[in-house]
Amino acid sequence: MKKILAGLAIIFWAGTCALAADRWIHVKVEDGGANGETVRINVPLALAEKVLPVIHTDKLRDGKVKVDSTDIHDLDLRAIVEALRTTPDNEFITVESTHENVRVAKAGGNLLIKVRESKGKAEAKTTAETKTVAETVDVMVPFPVVDALLSAGKDELDVLAAVRALSAVGDTVLVAVDDQHSKVRIWVDSRNTME
Amino acid sequence: MPTGPATVAGGAGAMVLGTLLVAGAFVYDMGAIRVSVQGKQPGGENVHLIVPAAVVPLALPFVPDKDLQEAAEQVRPWLPAIEAATEELARCPDGPLVQVTSPHEKVSIVKRGDSLVIDVDDANEKVHLSVPVKLVSVIAGQIARVPPPKGERAAEPTPSEASAL
């Protein structure tokens, strides 16, 4: 009887490990515009891990993406992440402009980025409209994933390391973008479908 | 030991049967490609094909060189990625990989059993294609090995080919 129970325990443990290993990244884009297109993509993280190292293009090589410093406005991403690491949870670093409000913080071991964009004066028809939020972007990335992403050299993002780190984190909504016409969600979980 | 005509015929028969069995097992193992095109317009064509996947690599040499060389040029840089993706796809569970829905068109790519099933449904036609996952890398590999036109420098081997050498 003990042998049967031990056998069952091993099978259950192995099954649980296998399930934990099957992590999927999901992308859902809903375009509410004239075309009304919906795109759903489900990719096993294991597939991304295998494919990324063998892709060699101008910008992507060995799973690392070259980032032009002008693309990120010469921001020192590592310094920002280090500064955030030492700040208490939920204390936001806020950057405000005329029609964009960017807030960065950490909460529960995650890096949070919240962007609220309102209509510019030229685009808006009334003053009230300029205050209406036209687009919201919420990004939540676990710190181990951020660390992995920034583990490559200067001007490089290690996407492969980030994907590997992502395999180890729980179910997470990574990106949520909402604007008047479209909705984008990117998340990670253990299911191979969106239902 | 008797070596009469009956024994020789029996041996030959066994060899033929063995060869057929091996060939049959190979064809069965490779699976089949299913293509179905249903035209929606009046007079539109309907095509339904089931082709043993094992036949496709044998048919490639009959494709015109120019077309193959063009395809090879495009496939070669992506061959390692195609091989890695198909290897991993073969392992992953059945389910939808890509779904695109719009008022005019529906596209889906689904992993079902050992096959990749592609469905496209638009205003003009309904297309269904089922391809064994392992065949994708076999064909891509075969296309990538097509030599460039004479006079052009041969392409460098892909990392997977280099490691195999």
What's the gyration radius of chain A in Å?
21 Å
Largest sheet of chain B: 6 strands, antiparallel
Poorly predicted tracts of residues of chain A: 4-20
Mean pLDDT of chain B: 83
Oligomer: heterodimer
Q: For the largest beta sheet of chain B, what order do the strands appear in spatially? A: 2-1-6-5-4-3
Helix content of chain A: 25-40%
Q: Which band does the percent of strand residues of chain B land in?
A: 25-35%
Number of helices of chain A: 6
Description:
- The complex is a heterodimer of chains A (195) and B (165).
- Chain A is of the alpha+beta class and 195 residues long.
- Chain A has one domain.
- Helices cover 30% and strands 36% of the residues of chain A.
- Chain A contains six helices and eleven strands.
- Chain A has helices at 2-21, 45-51, 77-86, 127-131, 143-149, 159-167; strands spanning 24-31, 38-44, 60-61, 64-66, 93-96, 100-107, 110-118, 133-142, 156-158, 172-179, 182-189.
- In chain A, a hairpin with a 2-residue loop joins strand 6 and strand 7 (110-118).
- The longest helix of chain A is centred in the first third of the chain and has 20 residues, at 2-21.
- The radius of gyration of chain B is 21 Å and the shape is extended.
- Chain B starts with a helix and ends with a helix.
- In chain B, strand 1 (32-39) and strand 2 (46-52) form a beta hairpin.
- The model of chain B is unreliable at 159-165 (pLDDT under 50).
- Chain B contains six helices and six strands.
- Chain B has two domains: 1-30; 32-164, no CATH class.
- Classes of the chains: A alpha+beta (195), B alpha+beta (165).
- Chains A and B meet through strand 2 and helix 2 of A and helix 4 and strand 3 of B.
